[in-house]
Specification:
Length: about 350
């Protein structure tokens, strides 16, 4: 396989990992106003991701670095054309990270409430805008002969893009509720399961429309992997429905696993629909960025491939070890007896 095509799938793998892992982080953050009835329950919720949220976020850093090195033309067009949405995502992630660290530095209720809302907003904004961005990449955006984005912010706020944002927002929210139910006990656990039942139904409806629309976009472009697009969408739909079934039966581990499969299948569906482009042009198909015309040299990709073979397994092993160490539930009793920070 040509190394450029290999790195297209490696970048896809990194974004899959990011959306699965930081996806439930976003969902947990967005759940605070619904599940956090008091400071103890809010600390219980935050502690479910306290040890892992920063590790989960590193996936997007690695994905961005690989995108820059493997596909510099893609990176340049994407970050210049999507500058404002990506800047908003960055600012939201910074506000969210600061809130985790500073929330417990003072005992005042108003102080904590402010940082709680920063966590909520810092989780909801990326969850929405990542969907808008990826949906627009798949659908295509106006690009000229110099591979420069010629649209505006309003260009990105089209029906398909906004539907993509709504899909990721709801999907991450429900995925996060499954994680809260998996990692907590007591009232928070029960409330998370109950809320996931309601949000899951809305998520199924919105995601179904988005996946069907994606299939039509891929078919209209005569995507060579259209069969994989259909299969991926089908797997995502079945996994999402099964997650609701498992949640209803109080099998939170299986529900969370099925939610993860949903996100994996959904992102792969988008990647299948995009192939062999990386940014289709709606101005003129000949102006589109493809895997071949947007990639780095073979020498650069060869070095990157050897680095990935060495370091990627180590990163995956470290992440697995971290989750194993912090695998226990965050119980309300422990939070009530704790006299230190929620971390």
């Amino acid at each position: 396989m040509d190394l450029a095509y290999l790195w297209f799938w490696i970048v896809g793998f990194l974004f899959v990992g990011y959306f699965v892992l930081d996806g439930f982080d976003f969902g947990v953050g967005m759940s605070l106003p619904f599940l956090g009835k008091n400071d103890v329950s809010r600390r219980q919720i935050i502690n479910t991701i306290g040890p892992v949220w920063d590790l989960n976020e590193t996936w997007v850093i690695v994905a961005g670095a690989c995108l820059f090195a493997a596909f510099p033309e893609w990176y340049a067009t994407l970050f210049s054309g999507f500058y404002l949405p990506l800047l908003l995502i960055l600012l939201a992630l910074i506000a969210r990270g600061v809130s985790f660290e500073y929330r417990h530095q003072r005992e005042g209720e108003q102080w904590k409430r402010r940082f709680d809302w920063m966590i909520v907003i810092g989780s909801a904004v990326p969850a929405l805008l990542w969907g808008v961005a990826v949906a627009n990449i798949v659908q295509g955006v106006p690009i000229d002969a110099d591979f420069e984005f010629t649209g505006t912010l309003l260009t990105l706020l089209n029906p398909y893009g906004l539907l993509g944002g709504a899909t990721t927002l709801l999907l991450f929210f429900t995925h996060g509720l499954y994680f809260v139910a998996l990692k907590t006990d007591g009232q928070v656990h029960r409330d998370a399961r109950a809320l996931a039942k309601r949000s899951g139904i809305v998520t199924v409806a919105v995601a179904a429309v988005f996946l069907v629309w994606t299939i039509f976009i891929a078919a209209g472009r005569e995507a060579p992997l259209i069969a994989f697009v259909v299969v991926g969408a089908g797997i995502a739909a079945v996994a999402l429905i099964m997650s609701l079934v498992f949640n209803a039966r109080d099998r939170e581990g299986w529900a969370f696993g099925a939610g993860a499969v949903t996100i994996v299948a959904a992102v792969l569906t988008l990647w299948f629909a995009l192939f062999p482009y990386v940014m289709p042009s709606t101005t003129d198909p000949s102006y589109s960025l493809t895997i071949e015309n947007a990639s780095s040299t073979d020498y650069t990709l060869t070095i990157m491939t050897w680095a990935a073979l060495i370091f990627l397994p180590l990163v995956l092993a470290y992440q697995a070890w971290t989750y194993w160490v912090f695998r226990k539930r965050v119980t309300r009793d422990v939070i009530e007896r704790a006299s230190v920070s929620p971390h």
